[in-house]
Amino acid sequence: MNKNMAWPIGITVFLVLFAGGLIGFLFYSTSLRFDLVEEDYYQKGLQYQDRIEQKKRTEALSQPLRWKVEAGNQLHLYFPEVARSNRVEGQIHLFRPSDARMDRKFPLNLTENAEQVLNLKGFSSGLWRVKIQWQIDGKDYYYEEAFTLN
After folding, report:
1. At the top level of CATH, which class does the domain 41-149 belong to?
2. How far apart are CA 27 and CA 98, in angstroms?
3. Whole-structure pTM over 0.85, yes or no?
4. Where would you find the membrane-spanning parts of this chain (predicted)?
């Protein structure tokens, strides 16, 4: 092989490998799944001030909303005393940041002691967020907390 032909062949091989690598990366990157934080994030952004006011109202309650995950993967929610004497409507959203397909929503269905228990069997372990939105006497409340399910 002639020494004068080594450079053009080397450059051509390099460019072909480089272009092949870019095309391979393009196919790989388009096959990846990614989830937005929420489906309707733009609309939620517009309602952000309302959410801040709901959180402040929740923090101003005389008793805080309490919760815990117990053995057997049960999520126990303990609502403030004011929820016992009033009709409460709302929703519990268990949000999985890494995969929106695992998100679950439950209607708020409190006992006479203002408690609710959710069975988390079948939920994958990892980071979850519990988002609770409820209404008492026309006032909206919101609570959000992260937890790790084992």
Report:
1. mainly beta
2. 22
3. no
4. 6-28
